[in-house]
Design goal:
This protein is α+β, with helices and mostly antiparallel strands and 125 residues long. It has one domain. Helix content is 36%, strand content 34%. It has three helices and four strands, in the order αβααβββ. Strands 1, 2, 3 and 4 form a four-stranded antiparallel β-sheet that branches. β3 and β4 form a beta hairpin. The longest helix is centred in the first third of the chain and has 21 residues. It holds the Pfam family DUF3316. Keywords: Signal. This is DUF3316 domain-containing protein.
């Protein structure tokens, strides 16, 4: 009987505290949590390998950026955005797009796709 009570207690405790771990960003006041997918393009390259390498470098640079610089780079800087809580979620990826420039040469553009998590002020109503 004691084991059943312990198991029920642990289950109840786990279920009530699971929501605390689901949202790593603490929001106080009138802030709401937002997630968006943003795409950053890098300079055109002459080969797909070079485009992938440049995009990978950009992805690593984004992962190392502080929150306020990440806001500016990903164009999240608005008056209603909290500038100190922005961070990238896991699972960023890279794609390369082939295109032809105006002189008829093929170019390869690396695109970095990231999911960004930030806080935005809700209306004051």
């Amino acid at each position: 009987m004691k084991a059943i009570k312990t198991a029920l207690f642990v289950t109840a405790l786990t279920m009530t505290s699971a929501s605390a771990f689901a949202q790593p960003l603490f929001l106080g006041g009138n802030y709401i949590s937002r997630e968006e997918v943003r795409t950053v393009s890098v300079a055109p390259a002459t080969s797909t390998e070079q485009a992938y390498q440049e995009a990978l470098s950009e992805l690593n640079a984004l992962k190392q950026m502080p929150a306020n610089k990440l806001n500016k780079t990903l164009n999240l800087s608005r008056f209603d955005t909290s500038s100190n809580n922005t961070h990238l979620k896991e699972g960023g990826y890279i794609t390369v797009q082939e295109r032809m420039n105006e002189t008829g040469q093929l170019e390869y553009v690396g695109r970095v796709n990231v999911k960004v998590h930030y806080a935005e002020r809700d209306s004051n109503n």
